[in-house]
Amino acid sequence: MIGSVVERKLASQPSTTPRFTAKPGIGFPAVQHRSKSAFARAREETKVNNADIRSNEVPVVVTTQPPVTAETKTISTDVEDLRHHISRANEQQLASMTSEEIEKERKSILDQLGNDAPDLLKRVREARERKLAREAAQETEAERNVMNSEQTERPPIHHPKPTLLSLGARPGILRVRSLESVPQSGKVVTLSLCPTPPTFSSQRSCTRPPSRTGKKIRFAEVTPKDIYVYESAPVSPKRQVFALPPPPDKPDSSIVSLGTFKGSIPSKRPHPIDSPSDDKESAATATGDSKLEEGTPEHIRRRYFPDAPENDPNLEWMQASTSPDSSELRFDLNGAPIPPPLSETLPSHLGLHHHAEGNRAGYTLDDIFLLSRSTVPAQRASMLGVLAKVVHRLGTQFKDGNSPDKIAEFVGKEGELRKQALAAGLSAISERGSVGAMAVEVVWECLVVWDDRTADVEGIELHLAPDVISSTHPEQLLPIIAGMLVQPSLPRETLEQLLAIVYRFAQESNELANSIMTAPHLVSAIIQTFLLTPIPPREDSFLPDPMALRLLIILASASRSNASTLLEPADALLRFATLLPDSSPFPTPLATSLLIQTLRFYRILASYGLYSHIATSASFYFSALGSYVLSPPPLAPKTLSQLRAAWSSLLEVWIVCATDPHATTPPHEILWSQVTAWGWESEVRLLRKDLTEAEQDWEVWSVVWNVEAAWLEGARINGVKGGEKERAEVLDSVQPGFEAEDGLEHKVVRAALEAVKQRLGTLATDSPGMKQALRLIVAPTRALSSAIRLWLACLPPLKDVPLGSPPFTLPFGELSKLCAELVTHPVWSLPQKRGMYLQVHLRPLSSLLVYFHRLSRHIPGTGPDLWLAQGLSMITRLIPGDESAAIAIEENCILPVTPQITGFHVQLPSVATDILKPFFEHTIRPSQNVYFGPLHVTTESISRSATLRLPGGAPDLPEEAKTGLPLPRDWLTAPLTHLLRSGTSPVFRNLPTGWDASEVEVVRATLLLLHVSSGVLRRWGLGVYALGPAEVVFACMKVCMLEHGVGGGASGMDSSVEVFRDSVVEKLMQWLLHPFTPKQLPTPPPSPPTTATCSEPTSASLPRFTPQNYLEIASQTYLSQTHTPFYQFYTDLVALYTSVSFAHPIFGALLIPVLAMRYPSDYRRLVWCEAGDGSRASSGVGGDVREYLYPVERDGRILGAYLQALLAGSNAPQGFLRLVAVHHVACSVWPDLQKLARAAEDETRPTLLRLLLNRGDAPAVRDVLLYRQSPRSGFLWPPSCFECDLAETDKAERVEYVRDVISGDMAERVKVIFGWKED
């Protein structure tokens, strides 16, 4: 404001200067540098736009009186007067000050300006003198030029009220002080925009004079009201003007209004346009340009390019885009979708408008994928970050279909978009800097966060997304990750994401876990980066990460070879066990977590019999750890339970290793005498005093009971008198708690029992919370199985004394009911429906069944047949890892069966079922090299276990890597399979020494076992586990396929005749097929069921296709290994029947089931049309006779074969097959039966009737003419369906039909057969 109002020398005639002297506009707004403030830019722009703007030049104030001539003399400038005045004042003040005051002020100045203040003031004075000399020379030269120029007078201009149009467009300058408020001296004041004296030429440029010599500066009296401060304008020029604060409520005349906004917000606001001159704006207004909307292409053309034609191609860049905007969904920089209406109105300063096509804000997925390959690192990193956020939303949507952030446009496309995003991240993961970090985040979102629900699943190969994992090419990615882990420039978050990616790979499969172990420097880099951190930690170092220990646990669980490789870094991890949480330099929660994971890692190694020597070499530290666990430490309840469980589980495995020191690697790493001296079982027993019956302590109760059971099992082998003293000590400790109603152990067992029942009820329904309920059922089930294991361990050796009273009381009745419900529960099919990785949660359930089956034989009232039924049903529920338990059930329960178990009344020859043991063991464990570690380690498992993880849903496993569990439904027929493939069977190549049995003996034992198992299972209500009709028929088919001489003489398998002709084999097959053979009744049933009508059965009345009732499915267990279709097998069977059976009745009955109408017509055509002897079977096998009769046959060739068979005279089929042929022929020719069977009219039907009546013999014609079925009663069996009980209306209809189709004479013959005469 200083310098705005200055009194000039008087001039009589001020020169006239054009009002606007700025250069004409060039068509584009002036470039605004954001480095300058808005106020500085406004001051610079006023130098160009001089119209109606408050001038920074000093106006010339002249008077109307003539000028007064005066002598020329030197007049000092105002600056010099002011400087002299200040100098005199300073000298006077110094004269009045004492020396102390002067020194004090001097020190104050030096403190403010520094010690070099005198030099600074000297330099300032010298610079001022040089400047004055230079200005004096310039003024002298200017006066000389003025005297030589033409002098013109300027008319006086009265002071106008300034208009602030241009200032209104400047944000932040809204309130100004009018020049009218400047005090006047009573003179007429005129203003000139040119500061030159009146003698200056009018053509001289309007510039500020070089010097202010001879001019006085007057300071206006500025009040606080003269200054109004607003917020500074934003850096972006896209800020909307109407977004400024509103005017005050009270009217203020000093505020300049900017007008009322009447337009609409454009989709993309143009840059603010500053008018280069008000003259052009006035001219445009005069020509009607004011009617155009500001910012439009035409407005810009008229204002900046007035000479350009309207359709100038050089101005096409101003036109709006004519291509329609894509309706594809767009995202903001946070990965959130932008609604289409909002994307059209968002301003451009948000950074969402880019160089892609269209004017809408945001980025489509195609834009994101395109820009994620940008060559600009910052842009590429930004788009990868957006892509990671989008993938996060897609993953949430994929896991929860009801997510509030669901994107409807991508429903069902999540998997494909996941692969695309993963490819984009992998393409940039090797880049450095922020690009690489953002690429890691994308891969982390696609692999880890997408499957975060399984992050805590251990003990099983996930196999969740094999196609996604394989697309990452782990063999190339893992070395890249190893290199990135050693880069110090990567942030901690990125390193943790890389660790999580490797952890996810290890979870997927054992194959990938082995790849991680073999990747160069990867495991060592992980251990060095995340575990071997400095102790104590430095400020610039990272803390250890427990996830790295979890990774080592999974790698060691994958295979014994991996565990052996990890023995080398195992010593370094002892730091986390020796530094207890209360003395650790790390935070207590972190130190506790590291300790828990270290103990779990040592337990995994001990499960292979490895690294158990650490219990001896570090016994002092583990003794201190035991004291710390028993203290108890000040930890959260959940954390304390986890610590106690990890410590106790490690002790359990070490006790098992000491039970048989020869099973460890190397042998004798830990001895039973050492375990006895350390007293681990006593320490664990002390944990009981701090436990409650609450659910959070169930896991600790389980491991405590397992430790005591393992101790007793080892004492039975290594203790004196089979561990008699040890059993007594344990019983004295636990028996009161189990016996008393208020005992703690009794309460825990009861509570766990009720929890299992309740959660099984939840799992019985197909509810969304089934997976969570399956997880929650693990803890109570483990508690129950551990209690039963302890009960069994407390039993004395069976060889010593018979069991008198139980060691302690358990709810035997409720446990029996629970296991009976569990064995038939649909929870076992949950992994096939919801993911095979859920099978790991079934391990405690199968363990409970195993231990209860061992317990059941000791419960009074459990007979041999009940125990056999329990074993047959429970063995089919065992899963991988339970192979040893399945073999024990097979050896001790199933093989010792006798015919007397099912109440045979016919004396059978002695049948030894123990000869089937090699076949069943191979069925349970096909490869001796594939040994899955059990849930509870044994002395056998620590030496033989190849892996501790279940296979999950591993696809396309080779035969040598497969497991036999869970057993198929027809596992009892496995010996027949090996007999049929005796030339390639691995069982016959590895038969035990001394095994000698014939083919007939193996078949007898197998059929006897099938018959006994079927009988006991149905007797105890477990018929669902017995073989169904189709499975029994296929087993008998395999027997009939065994030709004599199979196996060769070297194997001792020769037979002089076909196996199916053996009398015992015939009897056993007859008993097996008897329940499924349709009965030929002489009269209709006395009380036929209402559902067994003669009409065609509906799809709801017939059962769905299952292995029990459909041969093509039942045969897959056998035929899938050779990829042979069942039709080919059946063709060979029919050919064999024709060549060697000689119409064997049982062999012929086996051909009939596939003649049911639910099977393809190829089977019926094969038997009736192509096989010469196939239609001679007299009986059939099937469940429901309607399956053979409905729907009525429509194949003309098969109908002709039916008729031809009926016309064969003495060779015509009898029994069941004759009923089938008569039924289909009669329903094809008689109108009343066509209506009943809803059969369509066919042109072949009259031909059938004509052939029957012309060529048929009396029995065939009579059966077809008199055949009937009633729609209101049950099915009519022969001979009732052939009796002459037709209604009179039906007889008349049939006679008329014969008359119309054949002739009247034939109709009369039919009347005779009907015994019917016309009235």
TrEMBL record:
Span of domain RPAP1 N-terminal: 86-128
Domain RPAP1/MINIYO-like TPR repeats per the UniProt entry, residue ranges: 1123-1226
Region (Disordered): 1-27, 134-166, 239-328, 1079-1100
Keywords of this entry: Membrane, Nucleus, Transcription, Transmembrane, Transmembrane helix
Keyword match rRNA processing: no
Residue ranges the record marks as coiled coil: none
Biased composition (Basic and acidic residues): 1-10, 134-144, 290-299
Main location class: nucleus
Residue ranges with Low complexity bias: 1090-1099
Record-annotated membrane-spanning stretches: 1134-1156
GO biological process, one term: transcription by RNA polymerase II
UniProt domain RPAP1 C-terminal: residue ranges: 328-394
Keyword Cell wall biogenesis/degradation listed: no
Location relative to the cell: Nucleus
Source superkingdom: Eukaryota
UniProt-listed Pfam families: RPAP1_C, RPAP1_N, TPR_RPAP1
Family to which this protein belongs: Belongs to the RPAP1 family.
Protein name: RNA polymerase II-associated protein 1 C-terminal domain-containing protein
Native species: Pisolithus tinctorius Marx 270
